[in-house]
Amino acid sequence: MAALLCLHSNFPNVTVKPLAVLDKPKKLCVPFELKQGQTRLFHQLPSGLNMEVIEQKSVKNKDPDEKMRETSENPPLVFVHGSYHAAWCWAEHWLPFFSASGFDCYAISLLAQGESDAPAGTVAGSLQTHAGDIADFIQKNLCSPPVLLGHSFGGLIIQYYIAKIGNEQSPGNLLLLVVFPCTDFVLIMGLIIDTETPFRELAGAVLVCSVPPSGNSGLVWRYLFSKPIAAFKVTRSLAAKAFQTDLSLCKETFFSSAMGDLLVLRYQELMKKSSRMPLFDLRKLNASLPVPSVPKSSIEVLVVGAKDDFIVDAEGLNETGRFYGVSPVCVEGIAHDMMLDSSWEKGAAAILSWLDNLSN
């Protein structure tokens, strides 16, 4: 009989790359119709669970009078949502905008959000598992380093991804030894198996109204002492999920006062159906924070916030900027859901300007 021995090693990767699974006929959990040029894919993770991805490739037939970008030089953009959202929140405005600007765009629904499968348990995952799922998608589907864009808690997941790149010595591998005892000798055969998805380098990262590296506990305490009424409203809206039934509270939490109620009502319904499980166990999450610091990262980071953000305050925005050694950009006249708000073009334009400089 052959004996099996398993040893951890740091040999070069030997990886099998399955393709993403194409859209399968299924009843949608979230009533969002794709826009022209968008495709819904299902990327199969190593666990066997499927992760929804809304894809929109760059538009090449632009106005001939406008200077044409070399789309082959543009990095792909991968968008990661926050709590109570899913891939649709990017597909509404920003995917069409950035694809028209020459970028291939991919919006991910994290597990148990949107149309993605749900894992066993009571929460969708952790910083580590969500970042690992994003890394798996990037490794198996993208040919060049992407720019990751994350909103709110999605920004915190991207911060962990960046830290994983900066602190990762090499991916873990498993050395499988197969021993065949023979009459006069022992034959040993080895097989190297990749046991961890490598966190590939990024072309850049954009943190949009992101939870800061220390988590949301600092935000909560500041609100309690400086704005107790706002603290009560945020807690009621998010922790108690009152935004799902209270239209005015939903509007105050996520959007500007200029947003029409009918549009807020539509997004409220989409958010209500987007999250079948909490993204995290917040107690365990806070115990694991702050995210590890990154020694002089070569990754360019844009920290962008909203002047009228009801959730992430100015100090939270500045904390994230200090962490990465950059000056944050604060967009006027826009609220927390920058990609859905009535003036969504303002945030998109600021990011596009940064992306153009990134390519130069």
Automatic annotation (TrEMBL):
GO MF entries: carboxylic ester hydrolase activity; lysophosphatidic acid acyltransferase activity
Superkingdom as given in the UniProt entry: Eukaryota
Pfam families: Abhydrolase_6 (PF12697)
Ranges of residues in domain AB hydrolase-1: 77-342
GO biological process, one term: lipid homeostasis
Protein name: AB hydrolase-1 domain-containing protein
Lineage of the species this protein comes from: Eukaryota, Viridiplantae, Streptophyta, Embryophyta, Tracheophyta
